[in-house]
Amino acid sequence: MLRIHFTAEDIARTSLSRVADPLWEVLLSHFRLSDRDRPVCFQPWLVRLRSRPDLLTMMRPAGTLLSDLAPLGPYFPDFLTPPESAAGLDAGLDAVSATGRRRLRDELNLLHQTNRRRGRATPDWLAGLTDSQSGALTSLTTSLRKYHQAAVGSYDDLIRASVEADVTQRVSALLAGGVEALFRSFTPLMRWHRPVLEVRYDVEQDLYLQGRGLRLVPSFFCHGSAVSFADQDLPPVLIYPIMSEHRWETITSVDRRPLAELMGATRATVLVALRHSASTTELAATLHTSLASMSRHTKTLRQAGLITSERRGPAILHALTPLGWTLLDGAKVRV
After folding, report:
1. Domains (ranges, CATH) in the chain?
2. pTM
């Protein structure tokens, strides 16, 4: 959990970005490609990428670099997501390429220490980033630009609409009840206990804003928990995952491909089967699969906000949410 400590001055200086940050989206989309159990709401993005070998080719160099620079774990270097990126991709990449050698050495050393604790080797090529003559940093920024164009830019229609829907909901809360109401709109991701905002986070940490305020930034590719800078001396920012319902609402209004293509045949079939509420055992029997497998699928659908699960005696009864019904009707399901 991340505990963010506010003063009255911090409340006054807290802001909400209306758009996603391009370099955070690059990094977080790379994490989604590395997920062992990819959230179902990202399946349409993956389907589109897989249908375009040219996009995958553009992404590959940066993907290889990011696998070494930002492995899944508790730490990745902050220079990959500079505050300047709030002004757009060009400004962000300019800041990456202008990163000072001392900062690069410090952050790469911290990455090395983190890797060592986790029994992971740090690739030798990373040392070249601190050599102004090697061209490694320039190569990195070029690769990041191409990755953004392929993985984020090619999906901009759905990303932008989904983020705008989430921000509209947050702004409504802000206008109705101020910053504290804005914080409450993020429950259960965040909980406001004045003067501390408790945020679902991958590590235990305290952040004291000390009058600097907090910038909240929506993210299409962030999932599960929020993310921020490791260096607390940087301008405080919190990247938060937009609500899954906003991703699905945009998909159903824009993408009319069969649902099985969007989220996988088995999960689509489970969703269709739940036009009539059923228990895990009943679903497993109907679809001729194991209880363990069905439990995994229903968990994923529940996390995506498409079904509810309620204990009824010894059984767990599953049912479609309004969003689940909307997705079925909007996608013109054929499975």
Report:
1. 2-244 (no CATH), 256-330 (1.10.10.10)
2. 0.78
